[in-house]
Amino acid sequence: MKIKDMATLDLTRYPNELLWLLLLTANFLAILIAYKSFGKTGLYIWIPISTILANIQVLKMVDLFSIGVTLGNITYASSFLATDILSENYQKRDAGKAVLIGFFSLFSTVIIMHIALAFKPNDADFIQDSFTRIFGLLPRIALGSLIAYGVAQFHDVWAYDFWKKRFPAAKFIWLRNNASTMLSQLLDTLIFTTIAFWGMVETNVFLEILTTTYLVKWLVAIADTPFIYIAKIMFDRNWINNDS
């Protein structure tokens, strides 16, 4: 494939299910690359990336296996992988710091983008309407995300540490990873979906979003298990650059 062809690569011809797997892989590989390249700092970098992107992507509805779901679940759920790697390879306080970084990044995005929206656009401007459609809804999305993010992420950090103390052996990484993340994802889904979508969509649509959102996050939690083992191997074999 020529470079000029890559620039115009059209992925819309692929089914959503294949694109979902591609997005899943891209997110998890990005975390490992960031971790390999920048160490602990790379995981901190990923947190605001995933938080901001997920809160934009969540506004888009897509069909997966004939079920309507909100986009953004993979990217948002990937932040749990980042904090779990911090909990596994470092300390509880390192994972807690990542959660606070996520709070700050989302709050800053909401404030700065609303100031940007307040500017009167030039007559030649063509992006204001699109900006308004995306970031005009962001405060409610962001409020739901901030509350859900805080409850779920701090629970995840606590739960991972709880299970790690009781099952410290490396062979139980899968247990502490999934036991902490799956319940945390349930808390996140209940809180976020209620704040972000209750009253904005019909009840049956709301329940569908609630159910399918958790199902997708549950699947992502299972899928990220091999990647936390890879991150553990990278750490144990000192393959991490610029670690601190």
Briefly characterize the structure.
InterPro entries: YhhQ. The chain has helices at residues 3-7, 16-38, 40-57, 73-89, 92-118, 128-135, 138-166, 173-197, 203-223, 225-236, and strands spanning 61-64, 67-70. The protein has 244 residues and is mainly α.
What does this structure look like?
The chain crosses the membrane at residues 18-35, 42-59, 65-86, 98-117, 137-160, 181-201, 213-231. Belongs to the vitamin uptake transporter (VUT/ECF) (TC 2.A.88) family. Q precursor transporter subfamily. The chain is mainly alpha-helical. The protein has one domain (16-236). The chain has helices spanning 3-7, 16-38, 40-57, 73-89, 92-118, 128-135, 138-166, 173-197, 203-223, 225-236; strands at 61-64, 67-70. A two-stranded antiparallel sheet has the order 1-2. Helix 2 (16-38) runs parallel beside helix 4 and helix 4 (73-89) runs parallel beside helix 7 (138-166). The longest helix is centred in the middle third of the chain and has 29 residues, at 138-166. The relative contact order is 0.14. The model is unreliable at 1-7 (pLDDT under 50).
